[in-house]
Structure formats: structure tokens, C-alpha cells
Amino acid sequence: xxxxxxxxxxxxxxxxxxxxxxxxxxxxxxxxxxxxxxxxxxxxxxxxxxxxxxxxxxxxxxxxxxxxxxxxxxxxxxxxxxxxxxxxxxxxxxxxxxxxxxxxxxxxxxxxxxxxxxxxxxxxxxxxxxxxxxxxxxxxxxxxxxxxx
Length: 149
Known about the structure:
This protein has five helices and four strands. By secondary structure, the chain is of the alpha+beta class.
């Protein structure tokens, strides 16, 4: 069935081998399969007392950290326990709040990046950001004691 009895130069055997390698079937990953993260992204909307808004992305130190963040965002998106999702996003918001101590509120928006097809890309279309979740964290002094990001 896999063409193992066929000659090494047999096109059918080579086609099956290419398919198995491309699909990762021959490796037998099982539980330890490589995690290929989705396209979730975070944007922080930082609001100030004078109502001006700044936008920030998570700060990433290196490629390994970026991969871990992408994996974490996948896990957050899959959560069904809403309170856990909120706490995890709140923890990711804390460094942004520390960087902007004068801010009165931070909205964290988690969305999905939709990539254009190759033909659309050649036509000039770029990726789009589709918001999936949004949480507002109020940082005014009266509310900080109750909900620290």
C-alpha cells in the first residue's frame, strides 16, 4: 500500500513518500506534535484622562517569546471558562499599565488575522484584523483596589 516493495526510482513510491513527509504522517508525532499557532493577535488601546488614545502591541524580546505568546493566545481563544480568559488577558495587560501609569483605562482587543490569498496579495490586498474579544480594564483610582491589572 505504501509502495515499500517498489523500486527507489518508482514515481508512485516517490509520490507516496512526498505525501507522507508533507503531511507529517511518517513521523508519528501523536501527543508531541509541533504546535502551529493560529493567527491571533493582541492590541492594547490605552486611554488617558484627556481622552486621547494610544495603541500598543505586546513587546516581544525574541522569536521564541513570540512563538510562546502565539501559543498562549491560542489557548486563551479556546478557553470556555470566561473568568480565566479575563484574568489571563488582565495579566498580559499589566506590563502595558506599568508603562503608562497615567492611563485611566486599557482595552485589550484580541483578534484573528486573516491573510489574503496569493492572488489577492499580488493585487495589493493586505491582511485584515478581525476582533474576537475585547476587555476593558478601568484604572481610575477608585477602581484599582477592586481590579488590578
